Fold this sequence. Notes:
By secondary structure, the protein is an all-alpha fold. It is built from 11 helices and no strands.
Amino acid sequence: xxxxxxxxxxxxxxxxxxxxxxxxxxxxxxxxxxxxxxxxxxxxxxxxxxxxxxxxxxxxxxxxxxxxxxxxxxxxxxxxxxxxxxxxxxxxxxxxxxxxxxxxxxxxxxxxxxxxxxxxxxxxxxxxxxxxxxxxxxxxxxxxxxxxxxxxxxxxxxxxxxxxxxxxxxxxxxxxxxxxxxxxxxxxxxxxxxxxxxxxxxxxxxxxxxxxxxxxxxxxxxxxxxxxxx
Length: 230
């Protein structure tokens, strides 16, 4: 695995918010958090972003790294195991729907761009509904196929979580692009230490305990104000 110009270009393309997997349709729970007054300004937004990024690191982040290593080793069964664990860590229906919709779209797009045997097999299993087809595992398989490093996979995963919430913040809160970009810049600081902590963990270490996020999700499922799908 290396970081030559080609892999860097592919990393940028697959991490770009314009990559059409549907990220813009989700808010990471921010819509309801803003509606109930839990997030209302720059400071509370930054706190929310950091909390959600850390929570994602110890669930989806672990699964993504395990799936990546399995894909590199040609261990398809472990890749499917990672896919199941992602769903098991989603306590609310909207989070499960989000990760499956985005995962399926990412694998579907990859089929139109280039051929990879593992991704093709994964896509067939998703279509047969024999595996959930979650976004972290789809991302891991795609990055492994393109020779992008696992550290860059983790960074892309974290960037996606943070950027999704900050993009939604511009539509739900009175914050500016200057403020959201400052939060993005500062939130990138802990990513290396998070990676070092998470990289040694396995499926049994995935920690899904985030009651605030699950309560917010349950409120959104029953709510009437809806710009986003979660």
